[in-house]
Design goal:
The structure is a single chain. This protein is of the alpha+beta class. The chain has a four-stranded antiparallel beta sheet with strand order 5-6-7-8, with helices on both faces. Strands 9-10-12-11 form a four-stranded mixed beta sheet, with helices on one face. The protein is extended and about 135 Å long. Helices cover 32% and strands 16% of the residues. Strand 5 and strand 6 form a beta hairpin. Among the domains are: 1-54, no CATH class; 190-202 and 210-252, Double Stranded RNA Binding Domain, CATH 3.30.160; 395-450, no CATH class. Keywords: Mitochondrion, Ribonucleoprotein, Ribosomal protein.
């Protein structure tokens, strides 16, 4: 019996203090009360049951406490962990609607008759006059319905020229000219993004601080260019800061014939090495994609560059700019050597062309025997590129190759011989021409014509 009383006190104690009064507690207290009143051998114990405390009901919930934008964002957005795993790549893309769908030329909100556009100029013998008609409410409803029916919209696509290096990334894309400084504007300039990445800085007080780093190059495609690095908490701010800094750090770079560099050069920044080779017009840009984008901004159209060592993008661009700034023009080399600078081009059959002359030229006796006379070697600082030896093709060791050489020996160097004869004798002729006048190219055609 004592155990029952203790149990009753424990149950009633919960009721008295009003922590919670559930259906189970009420049933238990009722059963205990019945047990005490029906027992014959024990005095009746009267128990006072407290009234149940009302539970507070909340009229607000998750769905009516937050605005609609926050609710939709919670349903459609992706968490940071999911974004790292590649989820939600299509979220936030701009969607396009064809607003021209359903539109007719000459028909708008104001319902006006335009002779020659919406109606004929003449109706029978009468000349139609321009006049305004009542508005058509059905037209607006039809346009709204057409736009609402557009379910699956394609995202806005960039043209292949504006797409950059890898389509969805910023590097390689154009972000326009730098912002004007006072009354000075950057007309004709264009800025290309070379690098856009997240960087972190650990601090003792603030912890890990995240920023966006942007590296850009700007130029006017006529020799003026500049590079800069910008950091900010957001990508747009970092790009704008880097673009404006690049506009403040402009450099003028020499371009030969508005298409290539003046000479081959070697440049280095850190452990990154670049070997740049001058190329003729029409060759194109055969180099690293960052160097190619930089050359397009500067105005260089033909170039070959080989990168060796680490491919840190900022080191590559800095090394390339150092090489461009250190190159010497033909006139500078002619003044240094006090000799004429003569150019031999393959497309001109290596015909000598003087491209620069000094004020006073040295004589042959004044030139030292060990002096470097090669233009490229002198421009490289008395050094040459170490190139891998090219092995002969495999078919040169076959017997059929010897047979081919014997068959083509008769016509070998025929074109070069013709050019040499035209340069020396003004016609293609044999060394027997003086003795035998008929040994001239085209003699048979001349006799037949006579």
């Amino acid at each position: 019996m004592s155990a029952s009383v203790l149990r009753l006190n424990k149950v009633l104690g919960k009721c008295v203090y009003g922590v919670r009064l559930t259906k189970d507690v009420l049933n238990t207290s009722q059963r205990v009360q019945n047990m005490f009143t029906t027992c014959a051998n024990v005095p009746i114990l009267t128990v006072a049951i407290c009234t149940p405390i009302s539970v507070i009901v909340r009229n607000t919930s998750f769905f009516n406490k937050l605005p609609a934008e926050a609710l939709w964002k919670g349903v459609t957005s992706v968490s940071n962990a999911g974004r790292k795993r590649g989820r939600g790549k299509g979220i936030g893309k701009k969607m396009a609607k064809d607003l021209n769908r359903g539109q007719v030329i000459g028909v708008g909100k104001s319902n006006i008759i335009w002779p020659g556009l919406t109606v004929p100029v003449l109706r029978g013998r009468e000349l139609v006059q321009q006049q305004k008609l009542p508005e058509d409410p059905e037209r607006e409803k039809m346009l709204i319905k057409l736009r609402d029916d557009m379910g699956n919209f394609r995202p806005l696509r960039l043209s292949p020229i504006e797409r950059g290096w890898s389509g969805t990334k910023m590097p390689g894309r154009s972000i326009g000219p730098p912002d004007p400084v006072g009354e000075e504007t950057f007309e004709g300039f264009d800025t290309k993004v070379l690098e856009l990445k997240s960087v972190f800085n650990m601090k003792g007080s603030a912890g890990r601080k995240r920023q966006i780093s942007a590296f850009v190059v700007t130029g006017n495609k006529n020799g003026s260019a500049g590079i800069a690095l910008g950091k900010a908490l957001e990508a747009k701010a970092a790009l704008r800061k880097a673009k404006n800094r690049a506009g403040q750090k402009m450099m003028y770079l020499e371009i030969f014939n508005n298409h290539t560099v003046y000479h081959d050069f070697f440049c280095q920044f850190g452990k990154t090495k670049i070997f740049v080779t001058k190329k003729p017009e029409g060759f194109g840009l055969v180099c690293h994609r960052a160097i190619k984008t930089t050359c397009e901004v500067i105005g260089i159209k033909d170039l070959y560059a080989k990168v060796e060592g680490p491919t840190n993008l900022q080191h590559i661009i800095k090394a390339f700019f150092i090489g461009l700034l250190h190159q010497k023009t033909h006139q500078m080399l002619a003044d240094e050597k006090k000799l004429h600078v003569v150019e031999f081009r393959e497309e001109n059959d290596y015909f000598p062309t003087v491209v620069a002359s000094p004020a006073t030229c040295r004589t042959l006796e004044e030139i030292n025997a060990d002096e470097v006379m090669d233009y490229t070697q002198y421009a490289l600082g008395n050094r040459v590129f170490l190139k891998k030896k090219r092995l002969p093709p495999f078919f040169t060791k076959l017997p059929s190759w010897e047979n081919y050489l014997k068959k083509t020996q008769y016509t070998r160097n025929r074109d070069k011989v013709k050019v040499t004869l035209l340069a020396e004798y003004d016609e293609v002729q044999s060394f027997y021409t003086e003795k035998y006048p008929e040994c001239v190219h085209g003699y048979r055609e001349q006799t037949e014509a006579d």
